[in-house]
Design a protein that fits this description.
mainly alpha, elongated
Length: 304
């Protein structure tokens, strides 16, 4: 092996990243060539250049053919490399299966094999691999998220919810897991719980789309005034959101506040006119007894 190269023990490549970080504050320690190459691969992955990263990781893997962690990481670059298309999927599967053979107790290999299976719509295999990832001596709890996704594909919302509950209870949730659970809760018509999750998400980071979901749950719970207030708050963050004006207009109309609804429909039309908006405003005008204005709006709608 060329001078300056240091071989990693099996599954210890992740430690190299830490050593690299430590070496930045410790000039006395010289970085190995392999560590520099590994760090470069990680930077390329973050930048979205997985094809270039895979070239580096493949070279490192050939130097360390027993390193399961490195093999799985190589498979990940193939799995997520859109330039590779079908060829990348084949290479990814080969990497994950080989990693499982090298270390049958390495949960991360099963987890990514489950991810691969989901991408291929092989849902039974995805569940099998995710379940294995959670039962081995070195489990990967991310498999709860992947198995929940598989159950969702199969329209098994209760099983998906159970997995997401376990994952979030571990403190691993984050916004993505909470949002996925909230969507499933909505599917199950558990609107109170879904609403609580959407509100948790908003506390983490306000998002327009989540505000719509929050308002939808409030409407399902017959809390129309709260739903209107939710959309009003959204418009304080973004007063150019035509969809929010339309949604609030619909709620106002439903609640009998016709004049206010017309104001919202008019603002939405000003921002982004559509046949639907003109028709909605026409209905509101009719409710007010203004058939002349309703007729005018319907003629506008016909032009789309």
């Amino acid at each position: 092996m060329p001078n300056g190269f240091r071989r990693f023990t099996i599954n210890q490549l992740a430690a190299a990243a830490l050593l690299i970080a430590l070496s930045a504050g410790a000039p006395s320690r010289s970085e190995t060539i392999e560590e520099r190459e590994y760090a470069r691969a990680q930077a390329l992955i973050k930048e979205g250049h997985r094809d270039r990263a895979s070239v580096i990781l493949l070279k490192l893997y050939r130097l360390h053919p027993q390193n399961t962690a490195l093999l799985v990481e190589l498979g990940q670059t193939y799995l997520n490399d859109t330039t590779e298309m079908a060829g990348g999927q084949i290479k990814a599967e080969q990497c994950f299966r080989k990693a499982i053979k090298l270390d049958p107790e390495y949960g991360k290999a099963y987890y990514h094999m489950s991810e691969w299976a989901n991408a291929q719509c092989k849902y039974d295999l995805a569940i099998e691999m995710a379940t294995k990832a959670l039962s081995v001596r070195k489990p990967d709890v991310q498999a709860y998220m992947e198995r929940a996704a598989t159950y969702s594909h199969q329209h098994k919302d209760k099983q998906a919810l159970a997995d997401l509950d376990k994952f979030i209870a571990l403190g691993k949730g984050g916004r993505k897991a909470i949002e996925r659970r909230a969507n499933i809760l909505e599917n199950l018509k558990l609107y109170e719980r879904a609403l609580a999750d959407y509100r948790t998400m908003q506390k983490l980071h306000f998002d327009d789309g989540t505000a719509f979901q929050e308002a939808r749950c409030l409407e399902k719970l017959n809390k129309t005034d709260e739903a209107i207030a939710c959309l009003t708050n959204l418009l304080k963050h973004n007063d150019d959101d035509d969809a929010a004006y339309e949604a609030r207009g619909n709620l106002l109309f439903k609640g009998g506040r016709v004049k206010e609804a017309i104001t919202d429909y008019s603002k939405a039309i000003e921002l982004l006119p559509s046949a639907t908006l003109y028709e909605q405003r026409a209905q509101a005008y009719e409710k007010m007894g203004r058939k002349d204005l309703a007729s005018k709006d319907r003629k506008q709608a016909e032009r789309f």
